[in-house]
Amino acid sequence: MISIAMATYNGKTFIREQLDSILAQTEQDFEIVICDDASTDSTPQILDEYARKDSRIHVYRNEKNLGYRENFNKAVSLCKGDFVAFSDQDDLWLPNHLETLHKAIGDNLVCGGRTVRCREDGSTLKEFSPTPYQSNCLTSQKDRFIYQCYAFNLYQGASQLISRKAVERFFPIENDEYAHDWSLAANAIGENRFVYTDTVVTKWRKHSSQVTHKRHSREVRKNRLAQFALYMWSHNEKLKKDHDIKEILRKAIEFHTNSRLSYRLKNLAHAWRTSKTIYGRNFTGTLKTVLGYLFTASL
Questions:
Q1: Residue 30 in 3-state DSSP?
Q2: What is the pTM assigned to this prediction?
Q3: Which residues fall within 8 angstroms of residue 41, CB to CB, at 6 or more apart?
Q4: Residue 22: enclosing H or E segment and its boundaries?
Q5: Can you list the domains of the chain with their CATH numbers?
Q6: From the CB of residue 225, how many other CB atoms can be counted at a distance below 10 Å?
């Protein structure tokens, strides 16, 4: 069975569409575990309505607001399935979402699928996570790990499926500075137990009130990357046994925590090589990234 973990808060606008898209899956052996974080709108009533209609939907309501991270950790902790999928309250799943990820994951820790962005009305905006270029060129464990440590998350959480083993090893998420999908993907990539399927499985709805949109502001990126790398260094002993991965992680921590201009100039070649890995033949993207590194200490 697959468990679907959903954390909700004041999601009345899109929650019906999200739940309808989950219930319409081609893979029907699942449960939906929903933790509502003391919503003040009609979200709890909508959830109760759906739970009365389908016994696979389990709704838990917090008496007081726990915040996104703790509410999400709670939802995952209540999941009973052999695999866990993550659902936001405002996206749209394609009918093949669970079936595609379930078939692809095998004995890996994490499976990621392709996401497309969509407008509030559900119409497609553009591809995301990852782009065709990224999925074609970042094929090695090392290159994908470099991308996760120096750039941003390549594999969006609402398009991930994780194994029970990943739940036991990597939860609860302990820090607000990085997202769970970022951490899960990097840990699995570092151990070479991540698999990606190029099939589109999720429409990620872009709107002004979404939580992840607020968390990804540029001014906190550097601190998030540093905290993220430090977390993996202290929590994943397996990564330290791979010399190449260990060295990438060590350099990433140093890179994001050292803001002296002399250090940045000395390590300009390293910044250029890292940027080339991320952007490949896109010279403009590489140049902008290196200049950003020199003057903002952040890729």
A1: strand
A2: 0.83
A3: 10, 11, 12
A4: helix 15-23
A5: 2-218 (3.90.550.10), 220-296 (no CATH)
A6: 25
